[in-house]
Amino acid sequence: MSKPAALCVAPNLWRIPVAPFSFVNVYAFVEDDGQVTLVDTGMKSSAKRIEAGLALMGKSVADVTRIVLTHAHADHAGGAAGLLERTGVPGVAIHQTDAPFARDGHAPPRDTSTFLGRLANRGSNAFPAVVVAEEFVDGDVLPVAGGLSVHHTPGHTAGHVSLLHQPTGVLVTGDAIWNVRKLSYGVKAFCQDVKLNERSAHVLGELEYTVAAFTHGPHVSDQAREAVRGYLRDADARQR
């Protein structure tokens, strides 16, 4: 049986898997007037999956009026340039620290303290350059579907953010924590600063939310905050 093109996470909030097994997710927030905000855009090749997800929601790319990026990596920002062109949205919103990388179309450098990070720096970390219309910072509340608060969780990139949708209690973790097979900090080779990522992820244990929506892996709606806090606690214990 084929997987659905979009899954409802909360009222007017959908997860659109753009890679098999929910390995990469885009999130769609629907306003009362029907306009759609996308959080992340997947890879350059993700357009058809996004279109299919929107169609299942009864929407299309013509309804997309805002694009927010959690960070400037190709699997999150790679599809942004194409979507801007198709939707007519003037530019994306992204944290001010990652904005120059989005404009340049190149991910920040990877952590050279790991062998895989050094190896990743030798490869192409490019994606189509993106027009940035808005830069935000920690503590800002974006006017998305009743309020999307910005929580700076640097390390995966220096400008990486997690986003809390206040009306529904859904936390979009970005890549601060993954849920591929199990909760984890994700792949170290993808991080700009591995240790900082592990420290800043603890912000997610302090917030109040009912659903954890991961950009890698399926969302968790059953005792989500407790699951994240438990993972962080266990990860700390393993490092002692």
From TrEMBL:
<dbReference type="InterPro" id="IPR036866">
    <property type="entry name" value="RibonucZ/Hydroxyglut_hydro"/>
</dbReference>
<protein>
    <submittedName>
        <fullName>MBL fold metallo-hydrolase</fullName>
    </submittedName>
</protein>
<dbReference type="Pfam" id="PF00753">
    <property type="entry name" value="Lactamase_B"/>
</dbReference>
<dbReference type="InterPro" id="IPR001279">
    <property type="entry name" value="Metallo-B-lactamas"/>
</dbReference>
<feature type="domain" description="Metallo-beta-lactamase">
    <location>
        <begin position="23"/>
        <end position="216"/>
    </location>
</feature>
<dbReference type="InterPro" id="IPR050855">
    <property type="entry name" value="NDM-1-like"/>
</dbReference>
